Amino acid sequence: MHKLQDLLFKNKALFLALDQGLEHGPKEFNLQTIDPANILDIGFKGGFNGIILQKGLAEKYYENYQYKIPLILKLNGKTRINSSEPYAPQICSVSKAVELGASAIGYTLYFGSAYEHQMIKEFSKMQEEAREHDLPVILWAYPRGNGIDESNTDVLAYAARASLELGADIIKIKYNHDKIGFKWVVKSAGKSRVLVAGGEKTSPEKLLNDVYDVMQAGVTGLAVGRNVWQSEKPLEITQALKGIIFENKTPDKVMRFLK
Ligand code: FBP
Predict the structure, then answer these.
(1) 162-176: string of b/e by CB count within 10 Å (b at 16+)?
(2) Closest CA relative to residue 46, chosen from 223, 214, 183, 236
(3) Which residues are within 8 A (CB) of 159 and not within 5 positions of it... i.e. 6 or more apart?
(4) CATH number of the domain that 16 lies in?
(5) Structural domain boundaries enclosing 121
(6) Total domain count for the chain?
(7) Is the CB of residue 195 below 6 angstroms from any atom belonging to ligand 1?
(8) Looking at 62, 107, 142, 175, which residue is catalytic?
(9) 1 Cα: distance to centroid of ligand 1 (angstroms)
(10) For 158-188, what is each residue's pLDDT tens digit?
């Protein structure tokens, strides 16, 4: 049986991302959050639908959480130490993901990069292997590279459509604050689900309003990292996000969790 439904609640999803240590470096963490176990705790206590980890964290920290929160294993990644044309090589196999107990796999594809063809090839192979193991596939669809406008609505819609055609079950994409245009991005994804990325830490009001807007545009939910675990009230902001995503509440109604 396809496990995608197992990752959803009321057909919606809220995932916690913890792959920023590789992507951005330890500057994202403080003395508390530098310990991955403390963020896994937030994932479990907050009742997230899944936690997104790279292989190294999964090997060393996931064992204690395997019956508490589903694992979404990222199979590629890169650092930002050298900011040349983006390419995130595959660093983990599908069979390793199965061994580590993953409920889904993830891959970041930089649409428009000079290395796009290489990533499309890698992703396609991985997607077929994932099908053999019945693992849902989440594609981080990030337009990026020389001369690419990352927040252009047409470019985002193209990335969403390309992800559908490449076989992604869930497409994780960034919101560009074009409320109307984003509906077209979601439509372009067809039967693939769309999740929005959290982005840099912002005020709870702005985050909740953005999440409300993307839910109105038809997305399935959010895969958020910094806006939760960099918050002084990570569990409260999680409650507020859940109110909007799973209970269709408005930002005004859920702000009480943060008071
Ligand atoms: P955040 O909610 O912290 O932005 O995490 C979402 C995410 O997609 C992570 O999975 C990933 O590490 C990061 O953003 C990549 O961000 P970017 O490549 O834009 O710096």
Answers:
(1) bbbebbbbbbbbbbb
(2) 236
(3) 111, 141, 142, 143, 171, 173
(4) 3.20.20.70
(5) 4-258
(6) 1
(7) no
(8) 142
(9) 30
(10) 999 999 999 999 999 999 999 999 999 999 9
